[in-house]
Amino acid sequence: MRSGFVSFVGRPNVGKSTLTNALVGEKIAITSAKPQTTRRAIRGIVNAPAGQLVIVDTPGMHRPRTLLGERLNALVESTLGDVDVVGFCVPADERIGPGDRFINQQLDSFPRAKKVAIVTKIDDASKQAVGEQLLAISQLRDWDAVVPVSAVDRIQLDVLVEELIGLLPESEQALYPDDAVTDESEEERIAELIREAALEGVRDELPHSIAVTIDDMQRRDDRDLLEIYANLFVERDSQKGIIIGPGGSRLSAVGRRARGEIEQLVGSQVYLDIRVKVAKDWQRDPKQLGRLGF
Ligand SMILES: Nc1nc2c(ncn2[C@@H]2O[C@H](COP(=O)(O)OP(=O)(O)OP(=O)(O)O)[C@@H](O)[C@H]2O)c(=O)[nH]1
């Protein structure tokens, strides 16, 4: 069999996390319409007859404006130094631009990795547009494979898995047990689901200012209930007000949305308590970044 690591790269919002979840078959990475949602290198595991593919979902590459941005770019670079295959993602419905060319050039720094071009979101573009995008991407470099996919409509996902596994090194055994879907802990996944719920409907700089940590989790003995105590950090007092909303309405909606997702994940009822706190300018503060896990 073959087994190894692949990482999808591309500008923020091109659909890397959605593709990871679709391939893994379970939601392991949160997604949103806001760019730069992904902040961690999340591993998703795909088991196929030909082998095991470990997908390392990374933040989108961009020009950093904060210390957090710099750390995220560094995380992408160190991840790419280790993977067997890099999948360069470009959406079918947007022309290849300077941001894509910049990332493509960066790929030269990782000579060990095989390179695959992936045209994403083909459900959102005409056949002709997809064809043109395939041609445009082919001109960027000599790819080991070029594959158009739709994660949302599940088009060509098995073709992509087959191509990717074919490029992995041969190995005696799988890297993870064949029933594993991720190496993220339950606590980390829960914090991310709360962040995802909080991202819905917020605008401008606020999405970037949100961070979530879990203070405590306890399974009740007397009932089928998991109690979760979480902190939701923002950077300024004014943002705290927006997150909480009039009479706490926004925060309760966030709690409801997150609880639904968490109950699916843990398979029991959930009591969720979210405290909103201000960690002033945490994105630029090395100490606070450390405490929030970056
Ligand atoms: N129509 C369509 N939309 C998609 C597809 N894949 C992703 N999207 C949408 O594109 C947006 C961004 O998706 P993500 O998966 O969060 O993108 P990402 O590249 O991981 O983004 P970052 O975390 O910002 O790097 C979301 O609104 C998705 O619903 C697809 O196959 N088709």
Automatic annotation (TrEMBL):
TM stretches of this protein: none
Region (G1): 10-17
Gene3D superfamilies tied to this protein: 3.30.300.20, P-loop containing nucleotide triphosphate hydrolases (3.40.50.300)
Pfam families on file: KH_2, MMR_HSR1
Database matches in CDD domains: Era, KH-II_Era
G3 as annotated region, ranges: 57-60
Subcellular location: Cytoplasm; Cell membrane
Gene Ontology biological process terms in this record: ribosomal small subunit assembly
Alphabetized InterPro entries for the sequence: G_ERA_dom, GTP-bd, GTPase_Era-like, KH_dom-like_a/b, KH_dom_type_2, KH_sf_prok-type, P-loop_NTPase, Small_GTP-bd
Residue segments, region G2: 36-40
Keyword annotations of the record: Cell membrane, Cytoplasm, GTP-binding, Membrane, Nucleotide-binding, Ribosome biogenesis, RNA-binding, rRNA-binding
Record: residues binding GTP: 10-17, 57-61, 120-123
Annotated GO CC locations: cytosol; plasma membrane
The keyword tRNA-binding is annotated on this UniProt entry: no
GO-annotated molecular function: GTP binding; GTPase activity; ribosomal small subunit binding; small ribosomal subunit rRNA binding
Cited HAMAP family: GTPase_Era (MF_00367)
Function: An essential GTPase that binds both GDP and GTP, with rapid nucleotide exchange. Plays a role in 16S rRNA processing and 30S ribosomal subunit biogenesis and possibly also in cell cycle regulation and energy metabolism.
Description of how the protein assembles with itself and partners: Monomer.
Record family assignment: Belongs to the TRAFAC class TrmE-Era-EngA-EngB-Septin-like GTPase superfamily. Era GTPase family.
Protein name: GTPase Era
Annotated gene: era
